[in-house]
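Give me the fold.
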Amino acid sequence: MSRMRKLFADLREAVAGSQQDFTEGSLKRAIPMLAIPMVLEMLMESVFAVVDAFWVGKLGPDALATVGLTESLLTVMYAVAVGLSMATTATVARRIGEKDREGASRVAVQANLVAILVAAAIGIPGAIFASDLLRLMGASESVIAQGSGYAAIMLGGNVVILLLFMNNAALRGAGDAAVSMRVLWFANIINLILDPCLIFGLGPFPELGLTGAAVATTTGRGLAVALQMVVLLKGDGRLAVGWRHVQFNLAVMLKLLRLSVGGIGQNLIATASWVALVKIVAEFGSIALAAYTIAIRVVVFALLPSWGLSNAAATLVGQSLGAKKPERAERAVWITGFYNMAFLGTVAIFFIVFARPLVDLFTENPEVLALGARGLAIISYGFLFYAWGMVMAQAFNGAGDTTTPTWINLLSFWVCQVPVAYWLAHQAGWEALGAFTAVAVSYSLHAVIALLLFRRGKWKTREV
């Protein structure tokens, strides 16, 4: 009973926000303290898309098409946000490990300033030319008529997305993962309430249709950013920002931009490879494409907790290197990798055994069900490798080495995954199953390369 009480006490502490110094003490306790709120944060991030899709779906196919096209237009912005957030987490974590809280605060401010500049460069032309961009993406005139307002708000208001990413990345790097988790909870609650109200005009709210979804999402994220600022300015957390820090520091901004290039590259390379796989699968018809889409969505949702664990490794690596404890950083990665392997190994067994019932939740078509279940099982066989690959990639990023994962992605996805998928699909005659197999093969290769490079240890000497 005492063990159970301790487990629940640790869980409460993780969600409430642990005050543990992550450069000291037990790593087996530090990892869950960081990982639990990070896992919950990842789940909250996915809720935005689910909530919007649910309510927008009631407006018809043109509305859903607009959301899909707008998300495609925002792909570049998301790539920039992910790259900048990697750089921010690594740099803040390093300063915190060095006990340089002033330096960490300066980094957080410069990350926000970079985000605002990038947002202006993307958002202003995006808002002005929203209709033209939708037309360029192949939208019909009916989609443009219904969705130009939605696209203009989402593109023009992308600053709240970037700031949300930057501040949560800074908080995670500082070890305040529970705060970033609660911020996303808050944003989701606002979005959950406003979405139906603004779309359908419930109560005193105006009926804005599809535009209302953009207003709701942007408002939720905007209020979350305001909450982040309150927390940072309040100054009682691990990361505190004062007005004295609010000034341009070109050296720090350039360092963040330099580090972010690798992170942006990682994301764009991976995203582009998935687009190439979709094109290969689409050649075999709508049945194949539907099966692939369902299987990949199930896999992505299952991987969210693993991303939380991997982000914990990034924070621990950054802080430990800042504290001049490279051995602790390495040990943190190995322990996190074993945790992730145990989790994804369990998920893999579940997916392989229950592939058909899982896919059956998303389709009533027997052909889609059969192919989707086989594809899900094939991908799941590589989960033990994925577990290590994800943790290793984030360990490099946490050390400030964003270049190595970029090259690993390029080799794994474009030298291996796409050619193997094409050859298996067309030359070997496996069709869509060739793409599923290529995913398992390429991610396994990704993990092996990452493990070998990690063991060489050059990341330990990376300056941030």
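The chain has a mean pLDDT of 90.
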